[in-house]
Amino acid sequence: MISRVEIHPGRYHDSVRLMQASKALQGVEGVSDALVAMATELNLSLLADMGFDMDTVIGIGPNDLLLAIHAENEDAIAAAHGALEAALTPKITRSGGIEAPDAKTIGTAAKIIGANVALLSVPGEHAFVEAMEALQDGLHVMIFSDNVPISQEITLKKYGLEHGLLVMGPDCGTTIVNGLGLGFANAVQPGSVSMVGASGTGIQEMCALLDDAGVGIKHALGTGSHDLSEDVGASSTLQALDALDADPGTELIIVVSKPPATPVAEKVRRVAAKCATPVVVTFMGETTLEEGAGEVLGMLGLPRPTYQSWEAENRDHRPGSVRGLFSGGTLRSEARHVAGPILGEIGTREQDDGHTFIDYGDDEYTQGRAHPMIDQTVRVERLAAAGHDESVGVVLMDVVLGFGANADPAAELAPIVEQVVGAGAAVVVSLCGTKGDPQGRDAQAGMLNQAGASVYLSNAAAAIEAARLATTGSSS
Amino acid sequence: MTAPAVETRSTPASVRMPGVASTAIRDALSEPQTPATVLGSTSHAVWLFADGDVIVASTRDATRLPNGVEIAADAAEDVFRSVRHGAPATVGLGQVLFEGLTIDVVRWWDPRPALRSTSATQLAEAIVDLPATVPDLVSQPLSAALSAGSATAILVAAESLIGRGPGLTPEGDDYLAGALAAIRALGDALGRTDTAPMLDSIADPLTQLARSRTTTFSAALIDHAVGGRVAAPAASLMRALTGRGDIADSYEDLAHVGHTSGPALAAGMILGARSLLQSQPHFNGGKR
Amino acid sequence: MSDLSQLLDTEPVVTTAGTDMLAASIEEQGTAVERADWRPPHEGTEEALNVLFSDDLMRDANEVAIGRMLAVRPQLAGVKVARDVFPDMTDRTFLHAGPPLEWERASGPMRGAIIGAMVYEGLADDPDDAAIKAARGDIELSPCHHHGAVGPMAGVTSPSMPVAVVTDAAGEGVSYSTLNEGLGKVLRYGAFGPEAIDRLHWMDEVLGPVLSAVLENRGPIDLQSLVAQALQMGDDGHNRNRAVTSLFLREIAGSLIEGADAPLDQRRTVFDFIDGNDHFMLNLVMAAGKLGSDAASGVRASSLVTVMARNGTDFGIRLSGTGDEWFIAPAPPVDGLYLGSFTEEDASPDIGDSTITETVGLGGLAMAAAPAIVGFVGGTAAGAVRRTLAMYEITMSEHPMYQIPMLEFRGTPVGIDATRVVRTGVLPQINTGVAGKVPGTGMVGAGLVEAPIECFVQGINALAATLQ
C-alpha cells in the first residue's frame, strides 16, 4: 500500500466539483481511499483522520488544492491522476439556451463535431492555411478547390505523409469512404472493391459501371488532378494505395487516372505490383474505364454486362463534325481516346476547327461560376449554339449524377436537346450515375431519350456511337 | 412512390429525413411496404417490430446497431419526442415511417466487421489483459460448450443464459451474443473452417429459443450476432483484436454502451475468443 | 508508411469550409456535418499566413508561449516606492499607459494625469505651470510596459508613488503596478484637483507603508487563486472587481488587525479605503497579468498576443515572437454608458494598460463570468455569454484555473492568437472605463471596445518577416 499526498498551490475548484472528483478517484481500481479538496482546516483534519502523514502538508492553506491517495501501487496512483484530470476538466457543451457563435475556422468546427476529415472548397489561394491547420489538428484533408500553387500542394502532402494523414486534392472532386461520398459522389452499395484516383469523374464512372454490374464499393479515394504530375510524384496516390492494401475490407484495388507522366506511371505500377491485394491500373489513354471495369469483373468471376443504352428513335441527322461538351475531364479524355481512331484529329479548345471535345469543368469556364455538374448554364448555352451551327452533325455530352451534382440536370437539358435534334443534329449522352443516385438515373435517361438523345451508361460506348454517327453520316 | 396513409393524430405534418441503414435489414427495407408497430422509444432510438424483424431508428449519437437505421440528428434535437409506444408504423420501399416521421434510406453500411487475418498467438496476445466474465452470470457451461465446439452443448448453455438479467437486452443475452459473434468473425480471421458451419447449424434453433425466452429486440440481436453482425463498437473491438486500432480504447468504448449491455457484450466476445483459442489445433491455449 | 486505419475503419466525420453545397450533399446522405463559417483572411495577411503555416514552427512556439503564460504563479510580495524599484527612473521620469507617447500627441486624460503627477511630485506649482513644463520637455515619458509595469487608464506612475511588487512563486519574474485610487475624480482618469493630489499623498504616507507591513507580517498573497474564486462570484477581473477585492480584504484582515506595525487609525483608514473601493484589486490583477505576459514574451515564431495597451491616442499590441516591438493603430472610441450628464462627446478615446487582463483571459474575454457587469457596460447577460463564447475562436487555450460557471466551468478563453484574429476578423473584446477628454474631468463612463484589426495585420506581417 502506498500513501501519497500532493499539494497543487493556488489551484481552485468549488467544493461540489471536488467532492465529485474525490468520488471518481475512489472508484479507480487499486485506490482504497482518496481525498481531493481545498486545504481548509476541516479538510486537513479529514486528512489526518484518514491516516495520512501530516508532515507533508505543513504551511499550506485554503487556497491550495490537496490530493491524498491510498493506493495499492504506482499504477493506481497514475490512474487516479488520470481520473482527477478527467473529473476536473470541463466538457465542452453548447451552453444552456445560448447559441454558441458559428465556428469560423476548420479547427473550431472540427472540435464541435469531433471530425476526422476536413473538406475544403475555399478559394484556392486561401486553401493552404486551412488545410495546414486541419493537418496539424490531426485531420485528413480533402481539398475540392483548384488553383492551389503546386509548391503548397507538395508541402501539404509531405506533411500528411509524415503524420499518417491523407491529403486528397487540391482539385479533388470525389472521395468515398465506407459509403459516405464527399464532393461529387454516386450512391454505391457496400462491398470490397476500393479505388484510388487522381480523377473525380474517372472514379465516378468506375463506380457507376461497377455498381451496375452488382459490385459493391468499399472506398474510393480521390487524390487530386495534380497528384500524378512529376512534381507531386503520386504522393497521395501511393499513400492511399498502401493504405488500401492494408485495409482488411478491401479485396481488390483499382487505380484510375488520366494519363500520368511516364516516370510517375511507372512508379505507380511498381508499387501496385508489390501490393498483396490485386490491383487493376486504369490509365486513360492506355485503356478505357469500361475496359478497366471489365478486368475487375473478370477477376471477381463476374460476367461483363452489356451496359444499358436508350437509343434515340430517329437517328437521322445532318452531316458534320462531333462537338463534345463535357463536364468531367476524365470522361473527355476517355471519349477522345476511343473516338480518336475513328474521327482522327479532335481539338480540345473551342476555337479549334472540326471535331472538338471541350472540358467545361476546366478553370477557363468556371471563373466565378459553380462547376458545370452543378451549374449547367454554360453547357446549356453551348448546346443550343451547337444546334444553330450547321457544321455540327453530332453533339456528345456527359451528364453526371450523384450527391453534390445538379438535382435534375435532364429537366434543364431536355428542351434544348429537343431543339438541337429538331435542327437536325444528333445528340448522344454519356450518363454517369448509379441506380441509387438521388436524381433517379433511369428517369433522367428516359427524359433525355424522350427529347431525342441517345443515352449510354458507358462513356466509351457513347463516344464510339457519336464517332460512328459522324463518320457514317447517318445511322442505319 | 407514395406512402400508404399513416395515422397522424398528434403530428399533422410529415417530416422527411435521409437515413443510413444496415445491410442486415436491407431485405426488410426493400420489400413492399408492410405495417409495423412501435415497440418503444427514447430520445436516442425508436424500436419497430415489422413482420418478424426488429428495426431500430436511431440518432447519430446512439450506438449503431446491426438492425439500425441512423439519421443525422442527435438526441438533443429530440426528433423522437412525440413517438408513442404501440403507435403504427410502416417499413418498406426504402422507407421507415412512424408518427409523422419519414426516413428515406439513402445509404448502407455493413455490420459485419472486415477483419485482418490473424494467428492464434496474436489473438491470445491481444486478449490477455481483458476480463472475460460477468459477475452475475455462470459462464462455465457456455465456455465449455464453445471450447468443445458442440452445437448441442451451446444450445443447452444458451437456455440458461437467455433472458437472464434486467433490461431491454438482458445481460445473459448480450453475453451469449458477444461470444457467438466473436466466434463467427474471429473464427474467419483465424482461417477456421469449422466455426461457420457449427454456427449455421444452431442459428434456427437458437432463434426459436430466443424468441420464446427474451424480449423481441434482444432475440433479434442474438440472431444477428450468430451471423457475425454486430453493433459498431463491437465491430471496432474485433478490428482492434486483429491488429487495427487500440484494444484498450475500443474495449472502453464498448464497455460504456448501455448499463449492462456493453460490458456483457465485451465479456462475451472475449470468452468467444478464448474458447476459439482453446479449440484451436496445435495451439497451447495461450498460456505463457 | 501509414495504414490510414483512422480514416478507413469508420465513416468520416466531416467539417467543411467553403461552398455550402458540399456540406449539404453530406446531409443529403443522412450524415451530420459541421460547417465553418469561413471568410477570407484580412487583406494584406495572406502571404504572411502562408509563411507562418508552412510548418509546425509557429504551432510549437505557441504551445511554448501559452505554456509559459499559464505557468506563472503571481503573488503579491510587497509594496515599495516607485523610485526604489525602477532602476531607470529619475526624478523627472513619468511612466504612462500604452505604447510610447510624446506630450504633443497626448490625450486630455493623459495630459491631466501627467499634470497631476507633476504637481504631486512638487515639479510644478500648479496645473498651468505643469502643462508649460511638460510641453517644453522638462519631463521624460516612458511606457509602463517598458519597465515590467502596468497602470490602469492613464497609468501615470511617478517616483514617489507606492507600487505593488508581484513576484512569481513558480519562477523568477517580477511585475509592478500602482495602487488603485478608487473611482471618481482620480489621477488615472486625468483629474488633477486637490482631492486627487491629497489622496496620492495619503497613499504614499499611509496606504503603502501599512500594506507593506501587512505583507511582511502575513507573507505573499496568491493572486491567481483570488481571481479564480472571484470569477465564480461574478467578477470579470477587469471592470468588476467587487468579489476579488472582498477576498483580498479577508486575506489581509488578520494582519491588518493585529500583525501590521502601524497606528490603529491608519490601519482603520486603510481598511475603509479598500472596503470603499471595489476596484482596489484591479491594479494587482493587472500586475499579475503582466507577469504572465512577460513570461510568454520572446518565443521565436509565436503569434501569441502578449500585450494590448492604449495611451488614449494609440492602441498598441505586442506579439511573443516579435518581442518588444509595438504594432500601433489609433485608439478607438468606446461604445459605452455614461455617468450623469456626460455623453460620448465628453469621452476620450480608449486608454489604459488594463487590457493586460484581456491578454491573460480575463475582462472582456471572461465576461460570461460577470453577468452583473452588463448593466454597467450595456448589453444583456446572454450577450455577455456570447461575447465570451466568441473569444474561444481566437484564443489558444482555456485557462486551467479561471473558470466560468455559466459555461459548465469551462476555462476562460486565454492566449489571443494574432493569426486567428486576422483569419476570422473576430476582434478581442475589451471591457473598459471611459475617461473625460478634457484634462481634469475624471471618469465619464464605461463600456466595450474592440482591439483594432490594423495592429494584428502589422503584427502578423512582422512576425512572418522574422522567419524569412
Describe this structure in words.
Chain A has 476 residues and is of the alpha/beta class. In chain A, 39% of the residues lie in helices and 20% in strands. Chain A is built from 15 helices and 18 strands. The longest helix of chain A is centred in the N-terminal third of the chain and has 15 residues, at 74-88. Chain B is 41% helix and 17% strand. Chain C has 468 residues and is α+β, with helices and mostly antiparallel strands. Chain C is built from 17 helices and 18 strands. The interface between A and C is large, with 81 and 74 residues.
Can you summarize this structure?
Chain A is α/β, with parallel strands linked by helices and 476 residues long.
Largest sheet of chain B: 8 strands, mixed, barrel
Termini separation of chain C (Å)?
32 Å
How many H/I helices of chain B?
A: 10
Number of helices of chain C: 17
Instruction: Enumerate the strands of the largest sheet of chain C in spatial order, edge to edge or round the barrel.
Output: 6-8-7-3-9
Uncertain segments of chain B of ≥5 residues (pLDDT<50)? 1-12
**Proportion of β residues of chain C?**
15-25%
Strands of chain B, total number: 8
User: Shape of chain B from CA axes?
Assistant: globular
What value does the Rg of chain C take, in angstroms? 23 Å
Please name the two chains that share the biggest interface, counting residues whose Cβ lies under 8 Å from a Cβ on the partner chain: A-C, 81 and 74 residues
Instruction: Please estimate the helix content of chain B.
Output: 40-55%
Main traits of this protein?
heterotrimer, B: 288 residues, alpha+beta, 8-stranded mixed barrel, 10 helices, globular, C: 468 residues, 5-stranded mixed sheet, 4-stranded antiparallel sheet, 17 helices, 20% strand
